[in-house]
Specification:
Elements: H1 3-17, H2 22-29, H3 33-40, H4 48-58
Domain HTH cro/C1-type: 11-65
Pfam families: HTH_3
InterPro entries: Cro/C1-type_HTH, Lambda_DNA-bd_dom_sf, TransReg_Diox_bact_type
């Protein structure tokens, strides 16, 4: 897996596992929400500063964004749509 796709997969996997929306992650990391979407789809190359902001917002070490998946890569189930929290 290429580095860009690896970061994209891990970013989405970690965000969904923590139950954080793209909006909330972007707000916490002080980046644009659309940019989070581009990163998760592997359409943009983030800077080290951006990776640091994202990892801090997720409460993880930056190296977790480069973790190789074990076995087959399974699709990540998206969070429930909508912006309202219950």
């Amino acid at each position: 897996m290429e580095a860009q796709q690896l970061v994209a997969w891990n970013l989405r996997r970690l965000r969904v596992a923590k139950g954080v929306s793209q909006d909330d992650l972007a707000l916490s990391a002080e980046i644009e929400r659309a940019y989070v979407g581009y990163l998760e789809r592997g359409k943009r190359n983030p800077t080290v500063v951006t990776l640091e902001k994202l990892s801090n917002a997720l409460g993880i070490h930056i190296s977790e964004l480069f973790t190789e998946p074990e076995g087959d890569v399974v699709p990540i189930t998206p969070l429930r749509a909508g912006r309202k929290k219950k």
